Amino acid sequence: MLRLPGTYRAQGDTSLLAETLTRRGTVVGHRVLDVGTGGGALALAAVRAGARTVTAVDLSLRAVLSARLNGMLHRAPLQVLRGDLFAPVRGRTFDVVLANPPYVPAETEVLPRHRPGRSWDGGRDGRAVIDRILEGVPAVLAPGGRLLMVHSALAGEEQTLDGLRRQGFEAEVVARADEPFGPVMRGRAEMLRSRGLLEPGQTHEELVVVEAVAPSRTIDVRGSDLQDAREGGFEDVA
Length: 238
Hints:
Elements: H1 12-23, E1 31-35, H2 41-48, E2 53-58, H3 61-73, E3 78-82, E4 94-99, H4 128-136, E5 141-152, H5 157-166, E6 170-180, H6 183-194, E7 204-213, E8 217-219, E9 226-228
Parallel strand pairs: 1-2, 1-4, 2-3, 4-5
Antiparallel strand pairs: 5-7, 6-7, 8-9
């Protein structure tokens, strides 16, 4: 994988999500969106796992260029767009959305814009970007489509599940893994311990992969009301 300076380097969270989507066959034959793609590792994993099409989005110009270069290097048909989360694909729908958002709890709610920290800083509770994804994903998922998102349990897996369920999704944790602290977590360990987020001497965090299935809907034959069917495929309703 090529990576321009300042682009997020794929780590254990990326590997866990890639392994999960491959093991579960989530993307086979489907239209996939990788939001916050970084260097494109998850987008490439989706291509290898049999996705029909893969679109990748990132706010960072360096990340977009890295992902495009990696797509060319691996001869993978990626569409890579620059923009904030779902803005570049407004009006389009996908069968699967992949997300490895910034989720490390930080000192402040202010998210960095032009520093590498924007790849991992998630605000004070780690949820600043996670919650924006939960809010925006219903608009880009086809009926019956799936969200696969990885984040640290420190950012609140139950909050993620509850937020998705309130929007009518069926949501569960489908994979877990212990990840040794990297430089960022080691540097923030004392701060996180002081806030009760880490146990004394804790040197690992638990990563979770959340899978959420959007409601399927059918159109009432007499009018235009959308009714939950909770069955059927990933395609848009005609």
